[in-house]
Amino acid sequence: MDTQVKNLIPATSSALLARVQGVNKLYQALCAPLLARYALTQAEADILLFLANNPPYDTARDIVEKRRLAKSHVSVGVEALAARGLVERWYRDGNRKTIHLRLTDAAAPMIEEGRAVQRRFAALLIEGFTPEETAQLEAMLMRMGQNADAAIAALNKKK
């Protein structure tokens, strides 16, 4: 094991996990009024915002893969959103194999408020950062995510 990695383990790993949990708690706290106002679960709000913010990705599988939500949460969330008339299911070009999702007009106020929450969340996280620091952070987070994806793929191959 290289010295750089040895020196990072336990402090950095522990600190990173604690920070990730803290960031998640902040996001949940900021979302709480939106969830209460519209009687949504966090997963339902995440699905709505994912579909609104990522138009090319419009299937439950896309949400699971790109947003890293549990299949069960996405399935239950999509069902609840469809039942409330916030999401519609449709098939592209007669392909009955893949169900696509689209937001309805009824979801618009939730999307608008959800995006405001996301903007506030981002602003709070990068408060005091220079544009250069923000760019560096984005690049490092992207690399960390790619490293995690590669490690997961390698672990899955061993199974």
Structure explained in plain terms:
This protein has 159 residues and is mostly helical. Helices cover 71% and strands 6% of the residues. It contains seven helices and two strands, in the order αααααββαα. Strands 1-2 form a two-stranded antiparallel ribbon. A hairpin with a 7-residue loop joins strand 1 and strand 2. Helix 2 packs antiparallel against helix 6, helix 3 packs across helix 5 and helix 4 packs across helix 5. It is globular and about 55 Å long. The protein starts with a helix and ends with a helix. 14% of the residues are buried.
Gyration radius (Cα, Å) is 19 Å
Number of strands: 2
Helix tally equals: 7
Class from helix and strand fractions = mainly alpha
Overall pLDDT metric: 92
Biggest sheet strand line-up: 1-2
